[in-house]
Design brief:
Radius of gyration: 28 Å
Number of strands: 15
Distance between the termini: 82 Å
Oligomer: single chain
Order of helices and strands: HEEEEEEEEHHHHHHHHHHEEEHEHEHEEH
Strand order of the largest sheet: 13-12-11-14-15
Strand content: 15-25%
Helix content: 40-55%
Structural class: alpha+beta
Number of domains: 3
Length: about 450
């Protein structure tokens, strides 16, 4: 090789090593999206890769180098991250490209792995719909149903063949559905689906652990399977979770804890508090304690203490009785049937917008039925003292130290304003996210 050619090759060698593949996408409607975060996900957790800003058309492009190895990646496109994300398979052999619409979901335009998984999901979805339509129409054509079952079996076999040797094969095999060899009535079929739902799921598989598959599989069983007649929805969900948890009996404790924790987080975020606390009490707290995860145990117990139906944590406050100021406790307060507890700060712009609205709104409510307790989280008392005179109808309390205040920590306050609605026994009835949601609880639409 000539010296000049060798020099050119050496000059461009780093580019060949770094410029491997690309992940790109377009989000629509474009005005609803601003950025995406890319994470590499392993069985140990998520590792941040990079961030990209979307252009005016909602498009982004990320170049991946040799340090971005094959595996599962996650794209986050809004907050909370646990809710607004989706998985991507990256095999380090080809680019990944897609379009995402907030109404219709994701459509892959490049990446055989992801396109195959998407096609498989759609195909099984259509077959499942055909089975559902058959039973819903109470058809007696047993041959027609046997034909659909035959199509289901052949479709699964075909996709497993197409996926052979690819990363997506793990997901397609793990999702292998129960398929009858002959006619089954609806009750028998549903019973067998429940019985065999986890037959092909390997909870110890690292690729499955690196994706949302295991959690989604568990949740679809908990919320998708019917239960005993006469039970409430929550009772059915508990019943289903107990059954689903049996599939994890032999799984290693760390994986089991990871799955339970993610499910708990999603239930807590979706306000399924009773079910979330059931999982914490009967499964997760003991498991986390055995693994020495004290912070997780504290998180679970704090959530339970602040759930609807729990007694609100106590604190001191000053009230005026017959013209005299006296100190009392929240638990001893007996001025109204219900209380609106709001944590705010005199340096919080949102608070200074919402508190005047709340003060005005309360004038239309019976003061014997509803009173507002405004707890100020402050670094110093000066700003608070000069502001509370605008709200003479509120019962005021102050906590210095702001975020490090003991009462703020007891209520897990991470932002202001934060609202709680309490009854006369100081049990938590509701936790509206803002003033408008609080107002909607009192105003009939």
């Amino acid at each position: 090789m000539k010296l000049r050619s060798l020099i050119i090759l050496i000059m461009f060698l780093p580019l060949f090593m770094l410029g491997q593949h690309n992940i790109s996408g377009t989000f629509s409607p474009a005005e609803d999206f601003e950025w995406i975060l890319l994470y590499k996900v392993t069985s140990e957790g998520s590792n941040y890769v990079t961030k990209a800003t979307l252009d005016s058309l909602g498009a982004f492009s990320i170049d991946l180098d040799s340090t971005n190895t094959k595996g599962m990646y996650k794209i986050v496109y809004n907050i909370p991250q646990e809710q607004y994300n989706f998985d991507i398979i990256y095999d380090a052999k080809e680019d990944v490209a897609f379009t995402f619409n907030s109404e219709t979901g994701i459509e892959y335009t490049a990446s055989s792995e992801n396109k195959l998984l998407s096609s498989y999901s759609k195909s099984l979805g259509m077959i499942s719909q055909s089975i559902g339509n058959f039973f819903q129409q109470q058809s007696t054509d047993t041959t027609a149903l046997e034909t659909i079952f035959k199509t289901l079996k052949e479709t699964q076999i075909e996709y497993e063949y197409l996926a052979k040797g690819k990363m997506v094969e793990t997901f397609i095999r793990a999702n292998r559905p129960y398929t009858p060899e002959q006619f089954e009535d609806a009750k028998t079929y549903i019973g067998n689906i429940k019985k065999h739902y986890f037959d092909f799921v390997d909870f110890d598989n690292e690729l499955l652990q690196s994706s949302s598959f295991l959690v989604e599989r568990m949740l679809s069983y908990v919320f998708g399977m019917s239960g005993s007649e006469g039970l409430s929805d929550t009772a059915i969900y508990k019943q289903n979770f107990i059954k689903a948890a049996e599939a994890l009996e032999s799984v290693n404790p760390q994986t089991k804890k990871m799955i339970y924790h993610i499910i708990w987080e999603q239930l807590a975020e979706a306000n399924y508090e009773e079910l979330a606390n059931f999982i914490a009490d009967d499964y997760l707290i003991e498991l986390a304690s055995s693994l020495g995860e004290k912070l997780l145990v504290e998180e679970l117990e704090k959530f339970k203490r602040l759930s609807r139906g729990a007694t609100a944590p106590d604190f001191d406050l000053n009230i005026v009785v017959e013209g005299k100021e006296q100190t009392t406790k929240l638990s001893e307060l007996s001025l109204a049937t219900n209380y609106i507890l709001v944590f705010w700060s005199s340096t919080c712009s949102h608070c200074l917008e919402e508190l005047p609205q709340l003060h005005e709104f309360m004038k239309g409510l019976n003061s014997e039925e509803f009173r507002v307790i405004a707890f100020g989280l402050e670094d110093e008392s000066y700003g608070w003292e000069s502001t509370i005179y605008q709200f003479p109808d509120f019962i005021h309390a102050i906590g210095l130290g702001k975020w490090d205040n003991q009462t703020a920590n007891a209520y897990n306050i991470e932002a202001t304003p934060t609202y709680f609605i309490l009854n006369s026994d100081k049990k938590i009835l509701a936790k509206p996210t803002d003033f408008m949601e609080l107002k909607s609880m009192f105003v009939k639409q």
